[in-house]
DNA sequence: ATGAAAGCGCTAACAA
DNA sequence: TTGTTAGCGCTTTCAT
């Protein structure tokens, strides 16, 4: 019962036709005669034949898979984008190869490696810290990035980061906050820069002070949010409201503040960014800016598939809308200062 | 500058040797003469040659990739296991193909599909709800499951689930709880069953009552944890301590209880399972059972690689230890009942 | 130590 | 509508 896997030859023999006909039956059924088709299908069923993807790919000069480059697989943020990517790649017959840029030595080199390895028909870049310079590889496959990136070297799916920051600041201001701080992501990340820019611009527009010592650097993790909270607690003159560049940091910040015996939003108002699943399950619920990560992944995949199929290399980039999600972690500022 | 990608032929020509020699130089350098080797390497560098993995795989009758089947990519639980898998698969030269069992119609059918598709040299199953019966496919590749599974149809990497449950219950009992409840995962999941069994056994051992109405069914998600909390709040006669089968549920439970105005652990003690990142950032910190998910992934990958390389099909399964992580979400039971 | 040659399993011209 | 045929790029006997 453990006999060799059937090849197209076996099917052809069983159906009494040529291998070409078998191949056609399977790829463009419309072009073969009804009777032949039935015979072939029957033979396929009998032999348990499955096309050998490797052989097919070799012949068709493609690989049937897409590489996804991301900085940190363990981060749930990327998991959701992956989910979106998979939802369009899988039905389209593409495999999704995951590569962690942080696991090797030089991330940029990894990118270069994959670009020239010919191992994929396309690449999705999710690492905002990679250098666009690494892209200049001769016969490289199409690349889409699902993250902010310097310049327009590559079509991308981005999010309204500046507007998100503005929504966050606007909400705090509307609640009466006039001392608003910010916790950023890592300095070299483009998301960090865009949101910080949005934050500054919003304060400016509202005529609120932008104090350098109220801008703390984090790295998007919960730990860095907790660290920011400790820094905030140690301040003489604290901002009453904070916009944090990621929900994870907001979670870390809020937990630390609460463990220090203060209350949110009584003592400090918090607005995050992402709307991760836990945001609504915290107490108080985390006010945040939603970015639809599954959609981001799905759109990126669609863009890439389009590029792969048409060969076009300059698809227009896309901007995905963000949405303000009011919950309870932001309220009026404390009366006494 | 955009000329075709170099093939092994081009290299052979440039180095003045046969393609066989080029191939040998690249795979078993020891077997070619020093001078030839240098010439070949030089030619490789000049042409920018990279072996075509598809052709190589076709010839060698392998695929160079491993399929990972999981129920839900968006769940951070799996993301960490993936991270562990990638950390050994990538260096070993295997690609990691991700497949979401939930996205299609019948998950079991998906498994069967991949088993017979010949698209991978091995498969890692992370979905505890798949039926082992689906495994009986003639020439299927090696399979490892990194999750509890019925029987020993397949080598697996598991976690001391029963002991974890016992640790949780033991901790609550030691704190003085005599009314202990449990929130399970989905009924058809093997993790659910094992932990529930461990829960029951522990109560038994301690001579504590096991009340059926104190066992609530969840599905591992935060939402289901919140739902369990509402059910708990509505009870006449509530357990004072709860063991929840996942941290995500514990998070949902705790948030809901807090939003209802009760305090943890003053009004109810909570112990989770997993030690997800957020556990330490909550307020109070979540007491839980740690399972090292990255290790689980890494060990599963090692097991699978061993099977692929040796052809062995009955590697011994492995059990990964769990660890009790005390934090503040469990305390003494309320005085008044 | 090296080369010649035979495919791996499939698809796509081109013919018929 | 179907069959014949020529590879896709590589690895691996088998000779030399």
Automatic annotation (TrEMBL), chains A, B:
InterPro entries to which the protein is assigned, alphabetical: HTH_LacI (IPR000843), LacI/GalR-like_sensor (IPR046335), Lambda_DNA-bd_dom_sf (IPR010982), Peripla_BP_I (IPR028082)
PROSITE patterns per UniProt: HTH_LACI_2 (PS50932)
Keyword Transcription regulation set for record: yes
Keyword DNA repair listed: no
Pfam (any one): Peripla_BP_3
Domain HTH lacI-type: 6-60
Residue stretches in coiled coil: none
Keywords, sorted A to Z: DNA-binding, Repressor, Transcription, Transcription regulation
An MF annotation (GO) of this entry: DNA binding
Name under which the protein is recorded: LacI family DNA-binding transcriptional regulator
Gene source species: Psychromarinibacter halotolerans
